Amino acid sequence: MKSILFGAFTFALASTAFAAQTTPVPDVAPVADGQHVVINIPQQRLFLYENGSLKKVYPVGVGKATTQTNLGDHKIGAKAFNPTWHIPLSIQKERGDGVKTVPPGPKNPLGPVFVRLGNPKLGLGIHGTSNPASVPGIVSHGCVRMKSPDALEFARRITTGSDATVSYELVALNQDDAGHLWLAAFRDPYNKKNLRVNVLKQSIAAWAKANNRTISTAQIDQIVKARAAKPICLTCTNKNTRPKGDFVSIAWNSGGADLTQPKGATASIRPPVKDEILPEGTEIEVEALDDFKGASVFDDEEGVVEETTNSIASGEIPLKPL
Fold first, then answer.
1. 218: part of which helix (H) or strand (E)?
2. pLDDT of the residue at 270
3. What is the DSSP pairing of strand 35-40 with strand 163-167?
4. What is the pLDDT of residue 291?
């Protein structure tokens, strides 16, 4: 009996280890050489690539519309484990309790680790949280928030100097291992209105022609309008069909039918970069708190979304070892 149970347990672990990757993947080309972090704001997901291959997807909390996470290309900076949160002066004034720092522990809004994202002047970081229910969501003052176990796993895996891209892809067009085409559309939290529907339809039409399929434009319009954040199959005859194998992105932004390919392959291997790890307890000054008066919280398909009328402007946020 014990051997049967052990075998079942082993099979369950193997099934988990080789589970298909069916989170919609945005059309953002990772670097072919080294690690690359892609954070898609509308999707509230962080994608970790290594040498052009997707390795892990994490849910994240990102900046609110009033305190947006900076879009564009960045670099991963220093890491601080068990950081001390230095409360910005603006938040100190709001609290009015004389507290200037929060030590490491369960009440620290940075969680167990802080990883610098981009130039320190941006005041950005990827960190854990004392409020796991806020992940995923549109919740922060610009930083990227992860559930603390995920943040620790990510921090131990990512290397200082790695590429990072904060993207704003409102749709993901993916193909599964069975050759079916799937479309997911997301809400527009920053009201960018940057979705080029005509280019999306051009790409879908090119894919359909190349694969001898017929796809309803009315269904495309319906998915884009609903913005339900769930992948819908455009080529399945059975509405209950589930994705087979892993999702891979179609490079729809180019209007074609090709898959999204890694970029910047180099002839030589990059020299190793020394990981920059600050002393434990390093003091981090970022606007990490999100429980101000005037905040309203509601649930959507992606998780908890928070908006606040009491925003705080970002300034230069240095890393200051104790």
1. helix 217-226
2. 58
3. parallel
4. 45
Residue type at position 291: D
Only one residue has tokens 């339900």, namely 228
Closest CA to 172 of 204, 142, 143, 146: 204
Given this model, what pLDDT does residue 313 score? 29
What pLDDT digit, counting tens, does each position of 262-294 carry?
998 654 455 667 899 999 999 999 988 764 333
95 to each of 161, 232, 291, 312, how far by Cα in Å?
36, 46, 11, 13
What's the confidence (pLDDT) of residue 266? 52
The two structure tokens encoding residue 190:
């920053």
Structure tokens at 80: 């601080």
Q: Is 220 left (phi over 0), alpha (psi -120 to 50) or beta?
A: alpha
| 248 contacts 175 by C-beta, under 8 angstroms | yes
| Type of residue found at 183 | L
**How many angstroms from the chain centroid is the CA of residue 52?**
17
Whose tokens are 């409102």? That residue is 170
Cα separation of 10 and 309, whole Å?
Answer: 50
Q: Which helix (H) or strand (E) holds 240?
A: none
Contact yes or no for 313/287 (Cβ under 8 A): no
Q: Which residues contact 93 (CB under 8 A, 6 or more apart)?
A: none
Instruction: Indicate the pTM of the whole model.
Output: 0.84
In the predicted model, residues of the chain with pLDDT beneath 70 are 1-18, 265-272, 290-322
**Minimal CA–CA distance to 171: which of 219, 125, 223, 210?**
223
Q: For residue 173, which of 72, 262, 55, 255 has the smallest C-alpha distance?
A: 255
Whole-number pLDDT of residue 311? 29
The reply to whether omega before 136 is within 30° of 0 (cis) is yes
pLDDT at position 18 is 59
Q: How far apart are CA 272 and CA 286, in angstroms?
A: 30
